[in-house]
Design brief:
By secondary structure, the chain is α+β, with helices and mostly antiparallel strands. It is built from 16 helices and 20 strands. Strands 11-15-16-14-13-12 form a six-stranded mixed sheet, with helices on both faces. The protein has a five-stranded antiparallel sheet with strand order 1-4-5-3-2, with helices on one face.
Length: 637
């Protein structure tokens, strides 16, 4: 009798929910916009255990979530079912933007549901302007994974770009500071600049993540979105947050939030008038400073060589005084030396304001062409801005010396982590993030920057790690600055033995696929914990590529993995997929290697990897081992 009564009550509750939902959909305004442009789509195409039972539970759970999310805007649902022989569990999270009407929310989530059902794997994410939907075979609700970050810039530049950019950056900054402090992690606001142009900004995080995760996610989104000013619109998102601005309204006026009371003390604007005065004064001072700099350059360097094609509108790097760098590094004290490579020594320096930097002293010799190329190359790379590339802060010219000032990476270079005396065992997740970040940085250099930059020398010592062990590629764009007397092989080839693509090393043929080859070698080093060339190893393991290839031919390629204990819980299928990708990158034929953008898509499971039998991998044999032992750091340059 009790069970029958409970069943009838449940039926009544479901009926009431359906009636409320239908009423909301009918009453919803006609001008509604569910904003169903697909921003990010991620599918982990690994077949779940007990796939039939998993799919049944997933279908039922998704259907239930789609019905409920329009009522509350946010739903998490976990379902586990067991039979006599097996168990399967499904976790689903759905969230609509808080400013969306129930009708818009329902429409957006339905589109996301149709998209996510195309996955047929253990996990999937569908991210739209108006909503977010994710499922997985394990609990992920409080997790924030930095693997799906993306930003999309508009194409039209805003009118009065200087004031638009200043006002927009101020608005974005306030949104990112305030949103994690607001219950529900949602904020929208409009702001007017000095020219009375209105900017609309909005930020939100998934309600299930922690406040610190929300802050971290929005900080990344802010870095990405600031690259788009003065374009009139932009959006940035990650697996955890969404940030957007536009010169046109995209949310209702009643969705705005008073940010002032959520901002940390010291960041609250005292009044709109003060903001306008401050922005106007800043714009005036910047304009005056720009005029003075242009006037100074015309007088002092009237005959300076023109920039390379496509870089004529780039801004130049900041000029540092030599005495400031000398003081910051304690007169380039060896105690502050971070490392040394083909380009020169690198020192740690602390500027007067407390900022820690890395100062690279270039060895350009007395070549006139190298010094003239310095101005062009440095101006180019100072405009490169990507989270997986070390940022050039400025430069210095002192006599024949040329110095570059970079952001400082506290965890040093990757080679010290995986090969050094105090090496640190990395988990599979950490290794994968380093591989993915490096691939993203190279894809940006090759295809996303306005001119193609080929690195020439990808290796672990040129991959630096920040405080979160996120990788950043160093020394990109500098290969042409090497003096001719630095060559160890005929012709002018920049690279390091063991990482240099054979067609480049042997015939001087250079394309971006040479970087793909080097990347493949580095991936195998990261997975195995072994150097590309290590004469201390047994004879059959001295050359990493030959050793991996022999294991691949014997169907034992998983023996490449360094430490199963440290990487406990990793998916053999995922590791095997990454190893196969590395083998594809080091193919002898350039046309058989993927582009770096294809590599990124494969790593994110957006593209499938070709598991057909690879051709013989390509490598350079070094016959004179005695010479190698006495020249352990030989470079092919």
């Amino acid at each position: 009798m009790g069970k029958a009564m409970a069943g009838r009550i449940s039926q009544v509750e479901n009926s009431v929910r359906l009636i409320v939902l239908l009423a909301m959909l009918i009453i919803a305004p006609i001008r509604a916009d569910p904003e169903t442009s697909l921003l990010t789509w991620l599918c982990v195409r690994i077949s779940p255990n007990n796939s039939t039972l998993f799919e049944q539970i997933l279908d039922a759970t998704l259907a239930s979530v789609v019905k409920e999310v329009a009522l509350s805007g946010f739903v998490t649902k976990e379902q586990e079912t067991s039979t006599d022989t097996t168990t399967a569990s499904v976790n689903v999270l759905a969230q609509c933007r808080k400013d969306k009407s129930p009708a818009d929310c329902f429409s957006c989530i339905k589109v996301a549901e149709n998209q996510i059902r195309n996955c047929s794997g253990v996990s999937a994410i569908a991210y739209y302007d108006g909503c977010y939907l994710r499922y997985a075979d394990s609990n992920f609700y409080d997790q924030y994974n930095d693997v799906t970050h993306k930003h999309v810039c508009g194409t039209v530049e805003a009118a009065d770009s200087s004031s638009f950019s200043a006002t927009g950056r101020s608005l974005i900054s306030d949104l990112c500071k305030a949103t994690p402090r607001i219950n529900g992690y949602f904020a929208a606001q409009t702001r007017q600049g000095p020219s009375n142009a209105t900017i609309y900004g909005l930020a939100f995080c998934l309600r299930s993540i922690q406040r610190k995760s929300c802050e971290s996610c929005l900080n990344i989104a802010q870095d990405n979105i600031n690259n788009c000013f003065p374009l009139s619109d932009e959006r940035a998102m990650d697996d955890g947050c969404y940030l957007r601005y536009d010169s046109k309204p995209f949310f209702p006026s009643n969705a705005t939030v008073d940010l002032a009371r959520f901002l940390p003390r010291g960041n609250r604007a005292s009044s709109p008038k003060l903001i306008i005065i401050a922005v106007a004064g800043g714009v005036f001072l910047l304009a005056l400073l720009y005029c003075l700099l242009v006037f100074r350059k015309q007088i002092i360097r009237p005959s300076q060589k023109k920039d390379i094609e496509g870089a004529s509108e780039l801004r130049g790097p900041e000029d540092f005084e030599f005495k400031i760098l000398k003081k910051a590094t304690n007169n380039f004290d060896q105690a502050n030396k971070l490392g040394q490579g083909g380009f020169g020594e690198v020192f740690k320096g602390t500027l007067k304001n407390g900022k820690v930097v890395a100062v690279k002293k270039l060895k350009l010799g007395h070549s006139v062409s190298a010094h003239s190329e310095f101005e062009i190359e440095v101006k180019l790379i100072s405009n490169v801005n990507h989270r997986n590339l070390v940022r050039l802060l400025g430069c210095c010219r002192q006599g024949q010396e040329r110095l570059l000032i970079y952001e400082y990476m506290p965890n040093g270079s990757l080679d010290r982590i995986i090969f050094g005396k105090n090496k640190r065992l990395l988990s599979w997740k950490e290794r994968f993030n380093i591989i993915l970040g490096t691939a993203r940085g190279l894809a940006y250099l090759h295809e996303e920057f306005h001119v193609c930059i080929i690195h020439h020398d990808i290796k672990p010592s040129n991959i630096l790690l920040d405080h979160n062990f996120q990788p950043k590629i160093a020394d990109f764009g500098l290969a042409r600055l090497l003096p001719n007397d630095k060559t160890h092989v005929s012709t002018r080839v920049a690279g390091t033995l063991g990482y240099t693509a054979p067609e480049y090393c042997n015939r001087g043929q250079l394309t971006e696929k040479a970087d793909t080859y080097s990347f493949g070698v580095v991936v195998l080093e990261i997975i195995s914990g072994r150097k590309s060339i290590d004469l201390k190893q047994p004879p059959d393991m001295e050359y990493l590529l030959q050793w991996v290839w022999s294991l691949y031919e014997d169907d034992k390629v998983l023996e490449v993995v360094e430490s199963e204990k440290e990487m406990e819980g990793y998916s053999e299928e995922e590791v095997l997929r990454v190893i196969n990708l590395a083998l594809q990158c080091i193919q002898a034929s350039v046309k058989h290697r993927p582009s770096m953008s294809e590599v990124v898509r494969i790593l994110l499971n957006e593209d499938k990897i070709d598991f057909q039998k690879h051709l013989q991998s390509s490598f350079v044999n070094v016959e004179n081992k005695d010479y190698m032992k006495s020249n352990a750091t030989i470079s092919v340059q």
